[in-house]
Write the C-alpha cells for this entry.
Amino acid sequence: MSKGNRTGIILGMLIGIQVALVAQNSTNSPYTRYGYGMLADRSFGAGRSMGGTGYGLRSSRQINPMNPASYSCMDSLTFLFDAGASMHFSWYNDGTNRQKNINGNLEYFALQFPLWKNRIAMSAGMLPYSHVGYDFWTVSESDGTYPEHFSGTGGLNEVYIGLAWELWKKRLSVGANISYMFGNIDHRSTMPLSGINTTANDVYTMKQVNVHNLKYDFGLQYTHPVSKTERITLGVAYSPHMRLKTTSYDKVAFDQTFTQIFTADTTWNRGFDLPHSLGVGLSYVKDNKLMLAADVTYQSWSQAKFSNRTNEFDDRIKVAAGGEYIPNNFTRLYLNRVRYRAGVHYSNSYEKFKGSGYTEYGACVGAGFPMLDNRSFINTSFEYVRIVPGTKALISEQYFRITISYTFNERWFAKLKLE
C-alpha cells in the first residue's frame, strides 16, 4: 500500500472516530449529575489493563499521553496509530431499587511519529476528559412531595498535540501537550405537576454549560539502566490550575421543547475551574519479558470553582499498579508471544453529594495480541470497578468495562534501496 493511500485511510479513521467520540455516551451513573461528571481513564493500550498506569511507562510500541515525555521513546522509522473502544455493563442499588445498564463508546485515537533522529517525536490525538450520562426519577428536592425526572448528557473532550525531546540519550526526556478542550454538559429536570393538579403546568428546567479552552500538560521521565536488558524509569506529569471559558444557559419552561420560556439566563465565564494535577510513576522493565508499574495522582479539586461556587469538590488521590509478562517473545508459539497484563487501582471521588463522596476500587486483566508483523497489537482489557458511597443514603454502583484497542505500528520512513 502506498504512503498516500495509508495516509488517506488514517485520516478517514480519524474523522469517523472524532464524530463518534463526541456523540457517544459511556455512563448511566447518577453521580455524573455533579461537577464535570465521571473523569475518564487517560491511559492507552498496555496501561489501560495495568490499572491505568502511565506516568513511568516508556515504550516504543505504545502511545502514552499520560506523560508527554514518553513520546521520544521510538526509533526514527516508526509510525504509531492507536484507537480504542469500550463497553460498560453497570449495576446500581439504592437499597430498595436495582437497575442495570449497558453503554458503549469509541473512546480515543492518537498517532505518533519521529521528527528528528531518535531524539524528538510528536503525538496528536483526541481523548475524553469526563463523561456525563444519567436518567432517573426521584421525589422533588424542594419539598419531597412531587415526583421529578432528572437526565443529563455530555462531557468534556481534548484534542491534543504534543512534543517530546530526549535531552540525555536513553536517560532523560521532557515533553509537553497543548490541548484544545471542548464539550458541553446538559442537565435537565421535569416536574409533571399537571398529572397531580390539573390547574398546574409541567415545569421543565435546563442547565447547560458549553466549554472551550486551551489546556497544558508537562512531563519528565528519567531512566536508570540496571543492566543491559533492565531499567527503571521515574516519570512526573503536571497540569496547572486553569479557568475554563464557558457559556452557561439556565432556562425554565412549561414545555419540553423550551419554546414557552418562563425564565432564561445566559452568562459567560461564570467561573469553572480545573485543578492542579500532579502524577508520579515508577516502572521496571526487563526487555521482552516483564514490565511493572505504579502511579500516584493528586488533584487539588478543593481549590477549583464550579459555577463560581467554592467548596464544591474534594481533593482527589488515585493509586494504581500493574504489570505485563511475556512468556517467550522469540518463539513461533503464538500464545507465548502474547503480552499478559493485570492491575489494580483505588481513588476517592472529587465530587461531593450532600457533604459526602465515594471511594472507587478496581481490578483489571488484559492482553496484547501481536499481529503477523509482531509490531502491531490488538489490546484487550477487562476491568471490574466497585463504587462504595460514603453514606448509606447514596447509591452503590459497580460496573464491568471491556476495552479493545488497535495499535498500528509500521515503518513508514524507511528509504528503499535499489540495487
